[in-house]
Design brief:
The complex is a heterodimer of chains A (458) and B (91). Chain A is α/β, with parallel strands linked by helices. Chain A has a domain at 4-234: Amidase signature (AS) enzymes (Alpha-Beta Complex), CATH 3.90.1300. Chain A has helices at 9-17, 23-41, 49-64, 106-113, 137-140, 155-163, 197-207, 252-267, 283-298, 316-327, 330-343, 348-369, 401-409, 438-452; strands spanning 44-47, 75-79, 117-122, 146-150, 166-169, 190-194, 238-242, 271-275, 375-379, 413-420, 426-433. Chain A has an eleven-stranded mixed sheet, with helices on both faces. The longest helix of chain A is centred in the C-terminal third of the chain and has 22 residues, at 348-369. The radius of gyration of chain A is 21 Å and the shape is globular. Chain A starts with 8 loop residues before the first helix and ends in a 6-residue tail after the last helix. Chain B is mainly alpha-helical and 91 residues long. Chain B has a domain at 3-35. Helix content of chain B is 36%, strand content 4%. Chain B has helices at 3-13, 19-35, 70-74, and strands at 79-80, 83-84. In chain B, strands 1-2 form a two-stranded antiparallel ribbon. In chain B, strand 1 (79-80) and strand 2 (83-84) form a beta hairpin. The chains are: A alpha/beta (458), B mainly alpha (91). Chains A and B meet through helix 9, helix 10, helix 11 and helix 12 of A and helix 1 and helix 2 of B.
């Protein structure tokens, strides 16, 4: 028996199609890993063993008919803020502790049409507010070969960087957000965390479908195959390196490793271009204002009336206040309060409208860079502070400056690893692409993975 | 942050805090407001000349779609004799 925890989607597909293992056997083996390790790691909020085995059986019928597609019979973990019909989706919140969705998210419909196998729901911070990078733990520990996560402030990319995985935030609109519990609607995006860029490309091929239930959905109108750039090298590609991302915000060892990675790409035929993105200095503040304002609006639906935790009170108004006060955690409450502050009459122009203009300015700077470049190379995370989910001071939001710019600009961004720190932790590298430029950033990430981790491609 | 401003935000947010929580949340809010103070940043960008950074696809046709199954919707409500219990709204 091979070690399933080391397998990629691509290799498992091959084994399933060659009948080296059945979908049910594969599912059972992954369940054994989750059931043994999850009590200690708590990477999963829920293990769906019975449903998984049933789905695996259905998948095997399809495989036996020779009708399998890329994800048929491949086990997956889904973030617990993505709706799964009849399966508890608590969004990491006491407010929705026992919520059972009556419908599937758009991405789940796509995966189900491929006969995927849902092994469990990944633990998330409340409403996906990405404090901790824990979502990557399920993949790095071998619970499943991939996870569908959510990325508002960079959670997918931070998790990938932390655990030495590959995480893709697709272009805003590429993947349907229908059925994702909304936190900040103009910033939320669903994307994959997997072991390789190629696996992320395979998953994106399956989930990038236009969904009329998400007004911002574009899907994949040209039927682009995101695996086209895999193993194609980087010759002729122009890679921008913005100096602001390589200042004191990252340690010497990270800066050195990233610049070496850039040089490696240059040796492979890419052209490096030094650029400047001045507005990055304000990205964290801009993100904080816009995301909090949107969260205050989105989370106002949780009043304990239609669903969710219901509090007590002598009047209707008191009951709503009690429901929300008991149901939300402290970080969410802070964001709601701050969101209402920036949306209030006297602060609206000084905070919210100013942040909207700064967001446009950030996007305009990126657009300018892309006139002469194909991708932008940056560190995946800064070294300002590790996000722990515990509020220390608002300054710790500055640590997000590496990830939130791409979120604000709605651009695709992939994170992979390019070596290790002295401490043994992986060093994450991010590649931001043009709008709908996922194929190019995955092509470069794949090239880096082949150089830095050749053992994975033998 | 002054207590009166904090109380107004609590009302707008439909949240309340115990007395021993208030100081902590007022400090958090003060910290966020100070951190996100962007009003003095020079930003001469004319957002009226630029399309919004969030682009929208085609809106779906305004047509009635099948409802979600009632029994599944009621599964998340407070059950009482197979009815959906709502709070008393009219005082």
């Amino acid at each position: 028996m091979f070690d399933i925890t080391q397998e990629t989607i691509k290799s498992l597909r091959r084994r399933l199609d060659r009948r080296e293992i059945s979908a049910e056997e594969l599912c059972s083996e992954f369940l054994k890993v989750s059931e043994a390790m999850n009590p200690g790691l708590k990477a999963l909020a829920l293990i769906t063993g019975e449903e998984a085995l049933s789905a695996a059986k259905t998948a095997q019928v399809r495989i036996d008919k020779g009708e399998a597609c890329a994800l048929t019979g491949i086990p997956a973990i889904i973030n617990d803020n993505i709706m799964t019909e009849d399966i508890t989706t608590a969004c990491g919140s006491k407010m929705l502790a026992d919520f059972i969705p009556p419908y599937n998210a758009g991405v789940i419909e796509q995966l189900k049409s491929a006969d995927y196998v849902l092994l469990g729901k990944a633990t998330v911070d409340e409403f996906g507010l990405g404090g901790s990078p824990r979502s990557g733990l399920a993949v790095s520990s071998g619970f499943a070969p991939y996870l569908l996560g959510t990325d508002t402030d960079g959670a997918i990319r931070r998790a990938a960087a932390f655990y030495g995985l590959t995480g893709l935030r697709p272009t805003y609109g590429r993947v349907s957000r229908y059925g994702l519990a909304a936190f900040a609607s103009s910033l939320d995006q669903i994307g994959p965390i997997a072991k390789t860029a190629e696996d992320c490309a395979i998953i994106l091929n399956s989930i990038s479908v236009h969904d009329p239930r998400d007004a911002a959905s574009f899907g994949n109108p040209n039927n682009e195959d995101f695996t086209n750039g895999i193993n194609a090298g980087v010759k002729g590609l122009k890679i921008a390196v913005p100096k602001e991302f390589f200042s004191d915000n990252v340690s010497d060892e990270v800066r050195t490793a990233l610049l070496e990675a850039a040089k490696t790409l240059e040796k492979q035929g890419a052209e490096l271009i030094n650029v400047s993105v001045k507005m990055t200095d304000y990205a964290a503040q801009t993100f904080c204002i816009i995301s909090s304002a949107e969260a205050a609006s989105n989370l106002s639906r949780y009043d304990g009336v239609n669903y969710g935790l219901r509090g007590e009170g002598a009047s209707y108004a008191e009951q709503i206040v009690d429901s929300r006060s008991k149901g939300f955690g402290s970080e969410i409450k802070s964001r709601i309060m701050f969101g209402n502050f920036v949306l209030s009459g006297e602060n609206y122009n000084d905070y919210f409208m100013k942040a909207r203009r700064l967001r446009q300015k950030i996007k305009a700077e990126y657009d300018d860079i892309f006139k002469n470049s194909d991708v932008i190379l940056t560190p995946a995370v800064s070294d300002l502070s590790g996000k722990t989910g515990k509020f220390i001071s608002a300054e710790h939001y500055l640590a997000d400056f590496c990830t939130v710019s791409a979120s604000l600009a709605g651009l695709p961004c992939v994170t992979t690893a390019c070596g290790y720190r002295v401490s043994g932790m992986p060093i994450g590298i991010s590649l931001t692409g043009k709008k709908f430029g996922e194929a190019t950033i995955l092509q470069i990430a794949d090239c880096l993975e082949r150089v830095f981790y050749p053992e994975n491609f033998s | 942050m002054e207590t009166s401003a904090f109380e107004l935000l609590c009302e707008a947010s439909q949240l309340c805090f115990a007395d021993d929580e208030k100081a902590d949340f007022m400090e958090r809010l003060g910290s966020l407001i100070k951190f996100a103070s962007v009003k003095n940043i020079d930003c001469d960008f004319n957002d009226e000349e630029t399309v919004n950074s969030v682009s929208l696809g085609d809106l779906r046709e305004d047509a009635a779609l099948p409802s979600l199954p009632t029994e599944k919707l009621l599964a998340n409500t407070e059950p009482l004799f197979n009815c959906f219990v709502i709070p008393k709204i009219m005082e």
